[in-house]
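Appendix C reproduces, verbatim, an entry submitted by the partner laboratory led by Prof. M.T., so that reviewers can inspect both the input and the predicted structure.
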Amino acid sequence: MQDFVDQERIKYNLKGLIISVNKDVHVSGHSMTTEPINKDMLYRTGGQTIPMFTTLFLILVDRGYLKLNDKIGYFLPQTPNGDLITLQMLCNMTSGLPDIIKEPVMTNDKDVFRNWTSQELLNIVYELEPLYPPG
């Protein structure tokens, strides 16, 4: 495994790379549909997406396409406080924007595996009040 990690880091010109391989999977509880969960179920990645998107932002910053102090309002003008919220605030979860997954429109949807479009999700954000000032 170490040889693979070393080769991939060099192949993609990465400064660092961490790969985790998990041998055992343990489950407990029930799903959103009240079925007992099992290791073969689909599940929402939730908070795991934050480090993934932060990594992508940082790659784009490193390559000069973005700056951490770029305002989200430049890209998405309808965003509440978009003229104040930076990409860095999005990455470190200090934007003040609410977590829409807890909103009734999301939790009341009968199809828990619904594939929401980006625009549908953004529209939910646009209608909500920020939780706190950016930063």
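The chain has a mean pLDDT of 85. Additional entries are available on request from the coordinating office.
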